[in-house]
Design a protein that fits this description.
The chain has 463 residues and is an alpha+beta fold. It is built from nine helices and 14 strands.
């Protein structure tokens, strides 16, 4: 049953049905036209024969003259004095055969307007006959339609044979043509089945299967399907690759977070054990409590950063209000001068205040993280220049710069520079937080780094 539900079967059946209907209509119209034509010819002969039979000398009685009539002609002459003469003319000269009473009655019942009509004469078959009223009586004359009926039956027989042959040829040729035309669609379906059989649930999925280029021509319906499937596979492949990268990042994130938390926890556990073992040593207790407090603060800062990243990843909205960027930069650079007096800090502000849209607290965190990054990862004596402009600001330093292999990953989580940038402290979340906060507020950050020339350019929404 499912075989007849296939597109190939339905197209072939549709083509065969159309051929059958068209040929049947043509055959019907041809038969009707031929039948009407032949009957018109018989009617013409009936009129001519009737006209010839009425040409008799004046005063002569109505009578049948077989010499002027075709064989098989039926003639009925009814004189005005009540006498009648009826006969079927034979093939030979003067050959005739009398009609029976039923046949004579059928002819007598015909209208006398001279128009040929169909009349059934029983054993004689069907006739086309016409009756005409004259001064001397009524004359009826008819010709048989057997030859016409035989010709029509022969035509119908040939038409039936030709219709059957046409339907059979349409079925065979249509099946071949449709299968050939749908072969590209079968290949497209095969590609879809191959992709469906791939394990897509997890892991790194190799979704390189594609519809061949020859089946992606947009000028054809099959090509449009093939091109659409390739586009879909490309999107699915990109989504699966992004999912795999996300899974890897989550695993790495968890591992890095665990590693970062393990160190302060181990320190807290060690100093707690020290205080427990030396209950009578006030100095050891104070030292242990100081370290516990220091590591607890470090853990608190790390956990707060992780929670902020989680909220931003979840799409939590931030405040969006006008913020005076010039004032924010002025405060942040002033704080940096106090924290790192061995660096040269420069601030370039325009004459008018730069107003941007965003969360003031989070923007302050962005600026603080960028300045802290420049302070921690550059040696003493480095010049750090902060410049404001309409719609954003930039932080430039003449330090050693980011290593080439690190620059493209600088905004990823738990990524740290090597010894060339004088690493000291931090969990590697500063720049990751910068990018996450800016993206949550419709901004962006760009990095351009070379030895002696490193610039972080921040773009924000103007107020």
């Amino acid at each position: 049953m499912s075989r007849w539900r296939s597109l190939t079967a339905r197209l072939v059946l549709t083509a065969v049905a159309l051929v059958a209907v068209v040929t049947a209509l043509v055959a019907t119209v041809t038969t009707l036209a031929m039948s009407d034509r032949l009957h018109d010819q018989v009617d013409t002969e009936v009129r001519e024969a009737l006209s010839s039979a009425t040409r008799v000398p004046p005063g002569a009685p109505l009578a049948i003259d077989p010499r002027n009539q075709a064989p098989g002609t039926v003639v009925l002459a009814i004189s005005s004095d009540g006498r009648d003469d009826s006969a079927v003319l034979g093939d030979g000269p003067g050959s005739r055969r009398e009609l029976d009473d039923d046949q004579v009655a059928a002819l007598e019942d015909m209208p006398t307007d001279g128009r040929p009509r169909e009349v059934d004469l029983g054993a004689l078959g069907s006739y086309r006959a016409a009756a005409l009223e004259l001064d001397r009586g009524v004359l009826v004359l008819g010709l048989p339609t057997a030859d016409v009926d035989d010709a029509v039956r022969t035509l119908i027989g040939w038409e039936v044979v030709l219709v059957l042959l046409g339907v059979a040829a349409a079925a065979v040729v249509g099946s071949v043509v449709v299968r050939r035309q749908l072969r590209p669609l079968t290949e497209v379906a095969r590609t879809a089945h191959e992709v469906a059989a791939l394990p897509l649930a997890s892991g790194d999925v190799d979704l390189s299967t594609r519809v061949p280029a020859r089946l992606t021509d947009d000028r054809t319906e099959v090509g449009q399907v093939g091109a659409a499937l390739n586009t879909l596979l490309a999107h699915v492949g990109s989504a699966l690759a992004a999912r795999h990268r996300s899974e890897q990042q989550v695993r790495q994130f968890v591992a890095d977070a665990s590693h970062e938390l393990r160190t302060p926890l181990a320190t807290i556990a060690g100093y707690t054990e020290l205080a427990r073992r030396r209950p009578d040593d006030p100095e050891a207790t104070r030292t242990a409590l100081a370290k516990v407090e220091e590591e607890s603060g470090r853990m608190t800062s790390l956990v707060e950063d992780l929670l902020l990243l989680a909220r931003l990843d979840a799409g939590r909205p931030l405040e969006s209000e006008p913020v005076d960027l010039t004032l924010l930069l002025l405060e942040a650079v002033s704080d940096a001068r106090v924290l790192a007096p061995d660096h040269h800090w420069r601030l370039d502000l325009p004459e008018e205040s730069v107003m941007v849209l965003g969360d003031a607290q989070r923007l302050h965190q962005v600026v603080s993280n960028l300045l802290s990054n420049a302070r921690r990862h550059t040696p003493a004596g480095t010049t750090v220049a902060v410049s404001a402009r309409p719609g954003g600001f930039s932080v430039h330093d003449d330090g050693p710069g980011f290593p080439p292999d690190l620059a493209e990953h600088a905004f990823e989580r738990f990524v740290r520079g090597d010894a060339s940038r004088q690493r000291s402290g931090g969990a590697g979340l500063g720049l990751a937080l910068v990018r996450a906060i800016l993206e949550a507020q419709g901004g962006r950050v760009e990095l351009r780094s070379a030895p002696g020339d490193t610039t972080l350019r921040v773009t924000l929404r103007p107020a």
